[in-house]
Amino acid sequence: MTSPENTNDDASLARLTIAVTNANLPEDEAGQQALCESLETAVGSVFNETLGDTTADIQVMLGHTYTSVSPICPACDSALTLDGIHLGEDADAYAVARCSADCGWTGDGVFKLVDLNRSVGDHYESEVLAGGIRPERQRYTDRDC
Q1: For the residues of the chain, what is the DSSP string, one character each?
Q2: Which pTM does this prediction carry?
Q3: What are phi and psi of 30, to 5 degrees?
């Protein structure tokens, strides 16, 4: 499951994130859907007018988001094995990652704490969704607009 070929020289430029906070968003689902569609159209228009790019894949999501990657070898698409989890600084943890197909790829699996779930009776609830904790956004690089 390798990534689609990136036509940019710098892979970090292939993704743009826009975060809006402290906005009075619609509470009803129809209003939220209409807002998301309007924002997708508006951003698409800016890309088309500014860059002549009509192929950008634009997705608007309301609420907190997080990213994740599959435990798949980036060299041969086989499963990775993860061993020896150890804590790093801040909200980091690492595990030794190896290709299960013996292609030779090794590295570290990097883990970030993305939420805390608290036990409520017979189920768990997200502290992020409940508003108990506020997630922080961090960049992969130090490039700012």
Answers
A1: -PPPPP-SSSGGGG-------S----SSHHHHHHHHHHHHHHHHHHHHHHH-----------S-------SB-TTT-PBEEEEEEEE-STTEEEEEEEETT-SS-EEEEEEE----EEEETTEEEEHHHHTSS------SSS---
A2: 0.59
A3: -65, -40
How far apart (Å, rounded) are the C-alpha atoms in residues 137 and 128? 13
* Rounded Cα–Cα distance for residues 115 and 128 (Å): 6
pLDDT grade for 87, boundaries at 50, 70 and 90:
confident
In residues, how long is the chain?
145
